[in-house]
Amino acid sequence: LLLKLTPRPSLPSLPLPSSPPTLSLILPGSAIDNAQGSDRATALAGALARAAAVFCVDEVVVLDDGERRG
Hints:
elongated, 2 helices
């Protein structure tokens, strides 16, 4: 049995971006505001910061969703 291998046609090369893409994490402001107590809010903020560091997040954006506790 004899097989003939033919090369694939080459794909056109795409230009490289001038700067690497930015990875952003967007969170609602109420995410920490809804935590029960300041100790849990601090723990939640720390967990979010650690997750952002693990996934090499470039920026964290906190949206003002207008839900504030009184």
